[in-house]
Specification:
Chain lengths: 710, 710
């Protein structure tokens, strides 16, 4: 029975510590549920004040139990726990589930208690689930230590930072009559075992075919990503992240103490590890269910088969909004459809059968067969009222409809293409839909959920088709680069000066615009001579100034020696007036850039996921627009191209409104170069190239800001 | 019984034309349903080949029927319909429901048939529902002419361009056990009666408390808006619009032939008429149900009462994403909560009761009472497992839980503040939830849906609080303005020249930047003299050129007489080279604008809703970013302020990144002025001020483009 990394989650013998004859106590209900569900292993109630509990012999303590124990459910109060874990260790108990609240989540005293519990666990070689967990279940060995009623056995594993989210999944799964569950683990405070441990366990567990997770924050985010990338190759991992918004993050802080980083960053990191991230908690079950049933979708090309034009339109809207495509059907497909449909049907994509199926529901399955044979189509979304013809029109249709349901299930195997079904009548569970469902077709009562499930399948399939990449080791920094940091360190600076930043980029082979540091009239003249008559930009260079514009430290479009020198002097004076004792190192002169698209390439350190590349629309409005995409470092050029392609506003890169077409290859090289640079220098806290102006045949870095770790 | 504008929708006598003894026919099922539901009026089956149908005396035609008939259900084929409508007219039938397909939606022949049907209807004074309608029902007089099973009687009216969408609402309503329905009308082809007629009817119908609509396109969008604005004052109107995306619009075209305009425009127009627009079809019922139960929410300040931190976080995320606020609870509220909760509870907003209710579910209602008494709170969202304590923990809790359900319902009246409830156990209908529900608390199985319903309530309440505005009559155009258009017309031009556009703005009191049309060296010198040494922008003025930049027709930042004159000559030459026989009227010279926020103020003519104001972030990327908001013309200054405030990226207007704070009053005056201008001149097809640079103390219109109706 045991599989996965944590064999005690399929125990042969369980102790319930704090077993009770009082019906409202967990120590009562756990025993009751084990008995009711028919747990096949040994059950040992532990209670020093009772000889028998619920008909089972009780023991005063673990030491008195005659046989071995794999797993202990600890139902007693927080203060008793360190001692109990000691006893577990002495008895050789492999795993302990600690339910009590009152540990790290509740202040200093609780933190101390949690530390002592962990020490006892380490000493005794006991793995701890919790504390502050809602419990666990393993439906495949009738081990229900969380007390959810009506558990349906199946392939979906759950790991959750919230017992209620798991309870909602289990309850909905039991009612909707589709999904079944394998193992649930409430992670609680993650004192010992953590998200990645449980994920690895379920990844290896033979009963688990797909994994649903609710997470507010990770204690070891990078290990989670590593584990996820491994597990996701084998089975789908669907995750809903709490704390997407500021208000949600505040709530999460009260709940699990999680300090969430930027949600967009987390989502990007999780997605590139193959995790399917859903934005709504009510999408978790529909999506994981769909992915547990259907594995491969060869492309985003979907056909819609509808009974009813309204549902056809709604489905087309929903798929379109999710980036799925509705290609035209081949002429042969249209001809074959025309042969089985009435003249009122719309034979396009969506197909609307109109009244064709009202007295012959089998027509729907026939159309599905025809559409799935079309090579332009890689998946089918059926929407409308299949399953309800008998209910809606006449009982005489029930037999034909049931046969069509079975036919649908067969089509899944015959064509090897995903079919997802929406039906108004899904909650009524008519026979036709039960046949389709039993044959592995995911069934939804909401068109929007069905579309979302299909798009999740497309995303997961795309991820699995990507080549697995082994990141290269960080480069050894060139000596030139090291010297730049040494200088900054020697001066105790928190940021590089702009000329230093440009030199650093140059040291990593990143093309920087021509520039000169001018400190006096002679240098001005030399610079003007070098750059010619073009208009120049002048910027103050000072370790004291981070936002140059705000102190009048920038002049644009000045040209000719006289004007440039006058501007240089005026600029210094203006800055000195605003910042009296400012340390001015000179003025940076660069030719003004041509017309182009203003982009940003930046690296920040996310609180959870470490250094992250940001790419998107640059300029002053970057924070307001948030038209950016993220990718965790490192990125090679291929990944950089994917990052560029993941920006929502692609047309901006493709020459909209007479802007130049951005050279993506050059841009990817820049991004990959910045990735190399930042990985080689962990002393970089933040890097911002903003704007990078992408012109017809150049990328001009107009501003480079590098902040050091404080 | 009759109420509303279409009294035949509550008929005393109904004829079924094409009545049948064949169970799969509509003419059979309609009679069967009328009998089964106990329709109290007279029923006349019409069939020339039968003396009796389903036990009722049948008549060969309408003329043979002895009594009067209010409503006819026409079940026969399309080709028979014009003649049947003639007969209806002769018999004095007030309304006819035409089910057949094969009319305007199906080509030229069908269009002719539809025209003949309409003529017959007009002649005979018969109002037509359809053709190509799924039918209607009026649950309050047991008139079910659409054949939906298990209709639940209640207050929600439905008007839909899709029978399946209505069927889905009715089926979900019956199963979810909350909503009941009054009248449904399938609009079909809207040959005679249209969306606004039905809306006006349901607005006046005493049985209807809220209205749900599914619309792909309007035949008379402006009359719909007018009607909606009237009806929405009295009862909520919730609308889901098909054709939001390009793919959806294509599908809608096949379905109803609707040529949808821009979805964002439609949404803005509908919202300002008080219509609550939902983006997902699966949100239609939850939202309309909530609005039918709860009417007034005084502000966006909500408290969350959760059992379970995970659900607290998810609810906070969902409300936060929808723009609702979670204010802090008053100290007195927190104290009172602390007195009833365990130490493990989190007393903030969200409140998480933790384990406080596990053995005393009444605590939840007690907390609700305490929270609702807090003056900082105007609505309560309860999330988690209320209704499931007995199921989850112990049957012994059932009585206390049921009492708490009743208490919740009482709190609604006591505090006069909306309560919306989410429960994992909603679909199981435990007694506690049935009590709350019966007392008028909307109940949801999804936290995200509950949050959406609450935000819809907030939006609707805000709309109802707005003063009702009577738009001023269009201004009489000043003579100066008329002359500008006369000149353009005389030259058969499709657009105004930029100096004309600026003059026109000026004629309406809109501040334009200083500018001069220079056509020779003397005019250049005069302009440079007038503007001083500041850098100038030069732009080609030509009726042949719409996109000046693309033909090299713009020079920026030139200064001094020599440079400006050289640039003027070079610019003309460059344009002439690209566009050989170009008609150049001169070069427009204006001082370069200072730093500021680039905005767009524009007016377009929407295919459905006519002239619409667009406001948002301007510049070259305006189409790609779509960071814009819309409002139908006219707009007064108040409405213009609201339009400005509805832009998503508000921080851009509030001085982000050292940009100036935008003067909203000045901006609103500009927008209202443009509204006046465009209403006074219907010959304007499109107007674009882009960019309008909003500086610290000025708005500079850097480009003005006015295109005329072709």
């Amino acid at each position: 029975m045991a599989s996965g990394f944590l064999p005690f989650l399929a125990p042969r013998a369980v102790a319930v510590i704090g077993a009770s004859n009082e019906p409202t106590k967990r120590g009562y209900r756990a025993l009751q549920t084990l008995a009711k569900d028919g747990f096949a292993g040994d059950i040992y109630p532990i209670n020093p004040r009772a000889a028998e509990i619920q008909g089972l012999r009780a023991y005063p303590d673990l030491a008195s139990v005659p046989g071995p124990i794999d797993l202990a459910l600890v139902c007693t109060a927080a203060r008793t726990v360190p001692e109990i874990i000691e006893q577990c260790g002495r008895k050789g108990v492999a795993g302990a589930i600690v339910l009590a609240l009152g540990f790290g989540e509740s202040g200093a005293e609780g933190r101390e208690l949690e530390a002592r519990t962990l020490e006892a666990a380490r000493r005794g070689n006991v793995r701890v689930i919790g504390p502050n967990t809602s419990g666990i279940f393993n439906a495949h060995c009738a081990l229900n230590l969380v007390g959810f009623a009506d558990l349906r056995k199946g392939g979906i594993g759950i790991v959750s930072q919230s017992g209620n989210v798991a309870l909602a999944l289990a309850t909905e799964g039991a009612l909707a009559g589709h999904a079944g569950f394998s193992t649930y683990i409430g992670v609680g405070n993650e004192s010992d075992l953590r998200f990645h441990d449980y994920l690895a366990h379920l990844g290896a567990d033979a009963h688990t075919t797909a994994i649903a997770m609710y997470v507010e924050g990770f204690k070891e985010p990078l290990r989670f990503l590593e584990t996820a990338a491994e597990v996701a190759w084998r089975k789908p991992v669907v995750l809903c992240k709490g704390g997407r918004t500021t208000t949600g993050q505040q709530a999460a802080r009260s709940h699990t103490g999680s300090l969430a980083g930027d949600y967009a960053v987390a989502k990007a990191c999780l997605r590139s590890a193959g995790v399917v991230v859903v934005e709504r908690s009510d999408a978790l079950l529909p999506v994981v269910e769909c992915l547990s049933l259907l594995r491969e979708m060869r492309s985003r090309r979907v056909a819609i088969l509808a009974d009813g034009g309204g549902h056809a339109t709604i489905a087309a809207d929903a798929l379109g909004a999710l980036g799925l495509q509705l290609p035209e059907l081949a002429p042969a497909t249209r001809e074959r459809l025309a042969a089985v449909l009435t003249p009122q049907a719309v034979i396009a994509n969506p197909v609307d059968v109109a009244n064709s199926a009202d007295s012959a529901p089998g027509v729907i399955a026939e159309c599905a067969d025809i559409i799935l044979a079309d090579p332009a189509i890689d998946a089918l979304l059926v929407v409308g009222m299949f399953g309800g013809y008998a209910l809606r029109f006449s009982e005489t249709l029930a037999a034909a409809e049931a046969t069509a349901g079975t036919r649908f299930a067969a089509l899944l195997g015959e064509h090897g293409k995903p079919i997802v079904m929406h039906s108004i009548f899904a909650p009524r569970k008519p026979e036709a839909l039960e046949h389709a469902r039993a044959g592995g077709i995911p069934l939804h009562g909401s068109i929007e959920m069905a579309a979302l499930a299909l798009s999740a399948l497309a995303e997961y399939s795309e991820w699995r088709r990507r080549p697995r990449r082994v990141p290269a080791a960080p480069r050894t920094p060139p000596e030139r680069a090291q010297r730049i940091f040494e200088t900054a360190r020697a001066e105790s600076r928190r940021a590089l000066l702009e000329p230093e930043a440009l030199d650093l980029l140059d040291a990593y082979g990143i093309a920087t615009p021509p520039h000169a540091l001018v400190r006096n009239e002679a240098e001005t003249l030399a610079a003007v001579e070098r750059f010619g008559a073009v208009p120049l930009a002048l910027k103050i260079v000072s370790p004291d100034i981070l936002h140059k514009t705000e102190v009048g430290g920038v002049r644009l479009g000045v040209r000719g020696a006289t004007e440039v020198e006058a501007a240089r002097v005026a600029l210094r004076a203006a800055v000195r007036q605003k910042v009296p004792r400012v340390d001015i190192r000179g003025v940076l002169a660069t030719p003004m850039a041509g017309r182009g698209v203003e982009l940003i390439v930046g690296v920040t350190r996310d609180r959870q996921f470490g250094p992250v590349m940001m790419f998107g629309l640059g300029g002053t409005l970057v924070e307001s627009l948030r038209e950016v995409a993220f990718h965790r470092l490192p990125l090679d050029r291929e990944e950089a191209l994917e990052l560029v392609a993941s920006l929502r506003t692609q047309e901006v890169l493709d020459g909209t409104r007479g802007l130049p077409v951005v050279d993506r290859v050059r841009l990817a090289a820049l991004i990959a170069g910045v990735s190399d640079l930042c990985l080689a220098h962990p002393e970089i806290a933040e890097l911002d190239l903003n704007p990078v102006v992408a012109g017809a045949d150049a990328l001009a870095i107009l501003d480079a800001r590098i902040v050091l770790v404080g």
